[in-house]
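tokens incoming
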């Protein structure tokens, strides 16, 4: 059998190794060292936001967002059900209620036309997830939201844009992931972004266990103490060193992923004729090639395709089990509508291997086309 093709694998170069060694030799291994500060500067510059803070995960950034919004027991937060559990957990941890809204059948993002109906007097925020690094319809969502704060769960969306604006910088708060499965990685890691000055100042305190420690180190106060709620959300500067190298290579990594994504798209266009659905990228969106997926014609077909690809050494997983149908979702949240699209696409979606150093994507193309009885692209 040919060499197995994993679903994802991080891109690592000599730059990562050099920065990690520099971090170790600096003897500053805890958070907020020189590499953390350099990451903050990169994000502020490239993501066009005045406040950017590294966290130990995107989950931590989402939890910080819930704290910044002062969510209370009984408050409601609108979000898609087709997302990772962290989106809802951040809300549920505050005693607030995730209110699940269906997604669009094209981008698989929250259906902006169903948000208004889900808003009640208890609605305190809207959490928008940019699935596969493709933006939700932010202009419409902002208009519907009015004064209701918007949190962008942009975990998958680093370097993606909506009408030229970096995702994560459009709403009131943005949350980014640098988990190993993302495009740009630090193993574990995330970031919180905001343009709101009050949120930015308070986020710094929340991140430092509820203390004004950062102000003390800047000489703004003569001692630091406990002033607010908080927790330990900082990543080690070792992880920041790894991340800085990735950020400095981010455009090259994204370009490589986009080329593979486009090769998939071009090769699989012919499958549309038999009812297999390809990703949709609206003209106002610039994506980062985080995920390439197919929507098979049925759950049974997806199971057969997944099994076949596994047999030929290709890892191709499905994605989220909808939160509204999960035990936790039923206990802590509620569905605002029938969730028809969410239930359908979650049964049919399959993700194909995609990472910057993938050299055997043509074998993936050939095997998928072979499964559907189409002519192979190239014999390899």
């Amino acid at each position: 059998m040919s060499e197995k093709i994993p679903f994802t694998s991080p891109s690592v170069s000599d730059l990562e190794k050099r920065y990690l060694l520099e971090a170790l030799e600096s003897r500053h291994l805890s958070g907020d060292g020189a590499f953390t500060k350099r990451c903050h500067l990169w994000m502020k510059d490239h993501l066009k936001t005045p406040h950017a803070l590294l966290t130990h995960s995107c989950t931590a950034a989402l939890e910080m967002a819930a704290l910044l919004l002062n969510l209370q027991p009984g408050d409601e937060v609108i979000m898609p059900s087709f997302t990772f559990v962290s989106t809802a957990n951040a809300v549920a941890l505050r005693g607030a209620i995730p209110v699940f809204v269906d997604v669009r059948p094209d981008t698989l993002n929250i259906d902006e036309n169903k948000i208004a109906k889900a808003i009640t007097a208890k609605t305190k925020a809207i959490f928008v997830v940019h699935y596969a690094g493709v933006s939700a319809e932010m202009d419409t969502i902002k208009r519907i939201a009015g004064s209701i704060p918007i949190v962008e769960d942009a975990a998958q969306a680093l370097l993606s844009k909506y009408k030229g604006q970096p995702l994560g910088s459009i709403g009131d708060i943005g949350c980014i992931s640098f988990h190993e499965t993302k495009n740009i990685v630090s193993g574990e890691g995330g970031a919180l972004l905001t343009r709101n000055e009050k949120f930015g100042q308070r986020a710094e305190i929340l991140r430092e266990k509820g203390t004004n420690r950062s102000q003390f180190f800047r000489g703004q106060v003569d001692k630091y103490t406990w002033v607010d709620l908080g927790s330990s959300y900082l990543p080690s500067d070792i992880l920041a060193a790894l991340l800085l190298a990735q950020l400095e290579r981010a455009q090259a990594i994204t370009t490589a992923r986009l080329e593979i994504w486009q090769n998939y798209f071009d090769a699989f266009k012919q499958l549309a004729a038999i009812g297999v659905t390809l990703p949709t990228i609206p003209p106002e969106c610039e994506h980062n090639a985080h995920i390439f997926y197919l929507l098979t014609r049925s759950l049974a077909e997806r199971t057969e395709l997944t099994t076949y690809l596994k047999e030929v050494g290709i890892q191709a997983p499905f994605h989220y089990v909808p939160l509204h149908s999960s035990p936790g979702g039923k206990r802590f949240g509620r569905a605002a509508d029938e969730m028809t699209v969410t239930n359908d696409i979650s049964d049919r979606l399959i993700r194909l291997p995609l990472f910057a150093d993938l050299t055997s994507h043509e074998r993936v193309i050939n095997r998928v086309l072979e499964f559907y009885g189409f002519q192979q692209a190239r014999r390899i």
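note: Residues 14-248 form a domain with the Aspartate Aminotransferase; domain 2 fold (CATH 3.40.640.10).
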